[in-house]
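Forum: Protein Structure Q&A
Topic: Joint prediction for protein chains with partners

I've read a bunch of threads here and the consensus seems to be that you should model interacting components together rather than docking separate models afterwards. I'd like to see that in practice. Below is the full input, 651 residues plus whatever partners are listed. Could one of the regulars post the assembled result?
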Amino acid sequence: MPPTDTLPLVIDNQQSRWRNWHQTVDTPVGEWLTVWNADPNRSSLAGYQGTTQGLKDLIRRALTEDRSIRAHGGTWSFGPVAATDGILLNTQPLNYRFPIAGGDVHPTHAGGPLVFVQCGMSVADLNHYLDAKQLALPTCGASNGQTIAGAVSTGTHGAAFKIGAMQDFVRAIHLVPSPDESIWLEPASRRATNDDLAARVGARLETSDDLFKAALVSFGSFGLIHGLLLEVAPTFFLQIWRKEMPLDAAMWSAIANLDFSGLDLPGADGREPDHFQIVINPYDEQRRGVVTVMYRSPTRPPGSTAPSIGGRWSQGDSALEAIGLVTDLFPDLTGPLSKALEKIAQSKIENVCGRPGQVFRDTTTRGKAAGAGLGVRLDQVEKAIGIARARAVAIGAPALLAIRLVKQTDATLGFTRFGPATAVIDLDGAQSNRQKRFFSETFAALENEGVEYTFHWGKLNEVSPARMQRMYGAGRVQAWLDARRTVLPTPALRRAFANDFTDQAGLSA
Amino acid sequence: METLQSLPSVITLLIALSVAGERLVEIIKGMVPWLERDKRHPSEEARRRAVLQLMAVAAGIGISALAWPIAREILPANQNAVAATLALGLLSSGGSGFWHSILGYAVSLKDLKAATVERTRSEGDPLTRHSIPQPTEGRLAP
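Posted by a regular:
Agreed with the consensus. Here's the joint model:
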C-alpha cells in the first residue's frame, strides 16, 4: 500500500450536471470528482503509485455503491462517450511525465524514443513538453484540447496518411480495471519495455496482441487508463501549403490510389506530401475544395515562414453558433453563410513551416459546434462526398465537409480501419436542427447506397448494435467484447465501466 | 432550462414579424389618407386607432401564416399550426419596440444564466487547463 501522503487529492466538484466543451452534451451526473496527484509539481514513481491506489479506491467505492465509473479528459468529444450518471472523474490534473530509456527499454524495441505519460496530460502540453526535448508526437489532431488518454481512446487522428491515428504510436497501456490490481498491457509481438518496469509501477504485466489492440480504442470501457507509453519521434518540421483546387477526376483518382504525383499540388517540387486534407463547401457549384498539404522535413527549409502566433480561429469562434441560429431562422442564408464559414477556417497558406507543436496549436474552438466523422474506403470517397453534399444542400445544413487521409490502424475498433489508408470524412458546422437532420440522413443514405463506413468515436454519431456489426463485422466486435471480458472478468466490473453510449452500441455485455 | 434557451429565438422571431407587420400597416396608411392623419375629434381619433390596431393584428396573423415554415422550427415541437399562427399574429401586433425591450431582458437573463454556468463550471472544474501546473519530469525508479 503506497504511503498516505502519496494518495491523490479527490475534489468533489459539487455539480449535478456535466457538460462537454462543445456544449453538445449536457447530462446529469451522480458525482463529478477531480483527481489531483498528491504532488502536482513533480513527477515521481511514488506519486504515480499513490494515484493508482486512489483510482483503485474509487473503483471500489463505485462497485460498493453499485454505480458506474468513467473518466473524462478534455471533454473534447462531441458525443456522450465519457458521460455517466454514476461517478465521473476529471483526470485533467494527472499529467506526470517520465522518459523511458536505458535498461527499461526492451532489447527488441527498434523504434523511436519512448515517453510514459499520465492519462490527463493534454495533447497541447505534451507537444510543448516534447518540443523542449527536441521530440515530437508522430501525429495528432488539428486542435489539441484533448487529453492523451481521451484522444487515444476515441481514435483521434490527423491527416498523416503514412503515420496513422494517435493510438497507433501507443506502445503500452497502464490500465486500472479493478480495486485489486492494475495491468501493464503490451503487445506480445512488439515489446517496448523490460518486464521489471511493470512491477516497479505496481502493475501486473500482460503481454497480448489481442488485448492490446482491443484496449487501444475502448473509450473508457476497459477500466481507467492511468498511463500510456508513447513512441515519439525526433522533432521535425512541417512545411504547409493551402490552396483551392478543382475536385475533378484526377483528384478523386489520386485519393483512391493514394498517389498524388498526377496533381499539381502546391509546394510539391517532386515530393509526396505527408499530410493531405480537403475542405469542401457543399454549396460551391464550381466543385472546388480547399486543399492543405504538409511536407515533412528534418530541418526548416529556407524561404519558409514561421506559423503566426495568435489565434486566427478565436476570432471566428462564435461564428459557428451564430450561423447555426441564423440558418435555422432563415434557411435561404445557409449557402452564403457556409461560404463565410469556409473563409473563416480556410485562408490561403503558402510555405509556412513549423514544428508539430507550433503547427497544431492549443486551439479553443468555442461556440456550439457540431461535428460527425466517418471513416470510408479510399475508393468510395467520391461517392460518399457526393451523397453528403447532396444531403447538405437538400436540407440546407450549415456544414462544411472535409476529407483527411489516415493510415490504417491495428486497433480492433479503430474507426480508421480501412487499408492501406482510411479517408475520414468530417461533417462539421454549427449546432442546429438542420445539422442534426443532415447527419442522420447522410448516415442512412450512405447505407442505402452501399458505402461502407465507420463512425468517429469522439464525434456525433448514431451507433447501434446493427451498425456495429455492419461497420466492423461480427468477428471484430466479438474479439473486442472477449478482450473486455478478459480484462473485466465479472459482470459487476463490466457494468461499472459501461454507460448509455456503450449500451446503445451493444458493447456493455 | 430549454425554455430559457429558446426564449431569445422566439422573441427575435416576434420582432421580425412585428417589423414586417408595421411596414405593411405603414404602406396601407400611406395609401389611405384617413388612416394617415391624426384626427382632432377624440372619438374619430379613437376609431382611427382601433382600425390601425385591427390592421396590425390582421397583418400580424397574415405574416405569421406566411412565416409558419420558419416559425415551426423555432417554437417548441407539436404546436397546432392555426393556434400558433393566431397567437404569433396577436403577439407581434404589440409592436417591435415592445419586443425589442423584452428581448433585452431575455438576453440579460440568458447571459446571467450563462455566467452562472461558467462560474459553476470553473469552480467545479478548476481546470481551465492553463491553471494546471506542469510538473517536472520524473523517473520510473524508486
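Confidence is low (pLDDT under 50) at residues 116-127 of chain B.
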